[in-house]
Amino acid sequence: MLDGYADFYRDRLARGLPVDRPSCPYTEEFLADRRAVRDSMLRNPFEKFERKRFMYYSRDLGEVSHNHALLARMSDGDWERVRAQIRADLEDYYARV
Hints:
6 helices, mainly alpha, 2 strands, two-stranded antiparallel ribbon
């Protein structure tokens, strides 16, 4: 998950696209620091999912898990709707950056 998160921002940097707001620290150097990226990811956006109890992060184990009751109820169609919503949210966010 961490690699995919950092790769998303590396790709934007490589294509000359805005990474985030101008104050965002996501430079190539920052993205090479796994601990800094992990800490940033866990603060935002992950914290929002954890607050809603969709996912959990165990600091002792360094593992992320999904809410088991929610995961058991998710169908392939549900996951596709989640992916579509994430894409739409990203497009909307970057249209405003």
